[in-house]
């Protein structure tokens, strides 16, 4: 976490520089020297406020997660509370469109996923993000399915989001948001049909 007193204007500048350097050379080669040069600041500023590369990466991921949360919240606020499938689609879209689909963000996410497997603090951030996604999904699914099934389907949708996102991130053509939406809605329709009331 950045230390108190760091000018707010510096934080987005350094976060953007971190993502730009990761996109260009990868996480392991993204040195403090390269990032500071990209941001137009001294290496001492990064070391002072973030304690080095690890702290800066953590702040970069926090910034991405904050933006993702804002995107989801704003999208849901525009939709009727009883249109649960549209709200699920909004949650899905937030993972495949806009900021989250930008090349710099995608490559930073990939680096973060890899790094978080071996770092307790970054792993905790990943878990927070996962729990937030599942919570959003379960809120909507609880109105459509029995609670135990809603939990299972939420995990299924989350797995599809992660899998489709990862395949798209590794594809030179990028992430296909429309295909992701179709696949996830197909899965959801099947789950909902299994629990639809029987009619004569």
From TrEMBL:
Known pathway: Amine and polyamine biosynthesis; betaine biosynthesis via choline pathway [regulation]
Coiled-coil boundaries: none
Keyword field: DNA-binding, Repressor, Transcription, Transcription regulation
Biological process annotations from GO: glycine betaine biosynthetic process from choline; negative regulation of DNA-templated transcription
Domain of life: Bacteria
Residue ranges flagged as DNA-binding region: 31-50
GO molecular function: DNA-binding transcription factor activity; transcription cis-regulatory region binding
Positions of the HTH tetR-type domain: 8-68
HAMAP family, alphabetized: HTH_type_BetI (MF_00768)
Alphabetical list of NCBIfam families matching this protein: betaine_BetI, PRK00767.1
Chain's role: Repressor involved in choline regulation of the bet genes.
Protein name (database record): HTH-type transcriptional regulator BetI
């Amino acid at each position: 976490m950045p230390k108190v007193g760091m000018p707010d204007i510096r934080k987005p500048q350094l976060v953007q520089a971190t993502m730009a350097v990761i996109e260009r050379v990868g996480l392991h080669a993204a040195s403090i020297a390269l990032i500071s040069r990209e941001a137009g600041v001294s290496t001492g500023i990064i070391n002072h406020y973030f304690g080095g590369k690890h702290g800066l990466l953590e702040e970069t991921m926090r910034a991405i997660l904050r933006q993702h949360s804002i995107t989801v919240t704003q999208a849901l606020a525009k939709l009727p509370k009883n249109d649960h499938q549209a709200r699920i689609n909004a949650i899905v879209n937030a993972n495949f469109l806009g900021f989250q689909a930008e090349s710099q963000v995608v490559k930073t996410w990939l680096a973060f996923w890899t790094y978080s497997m071996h770092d307790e603090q970054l792993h905790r951030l990943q878990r927070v993000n996962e729990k937030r996604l599942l919570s959003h999904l379960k809120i909507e699914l609880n109105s459509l399915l029995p609670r135990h099934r809603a939990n299972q389907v939420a995990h299924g949708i989350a797995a599809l989001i992660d899998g489709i996102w990862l395949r798209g991130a590794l594809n030179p053509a990028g992430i296909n948001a429309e295909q992701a939406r179709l696949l996830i809605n197909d899965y959801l329709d099947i789950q909902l049909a299994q629990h639809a009331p029987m009619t004569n």
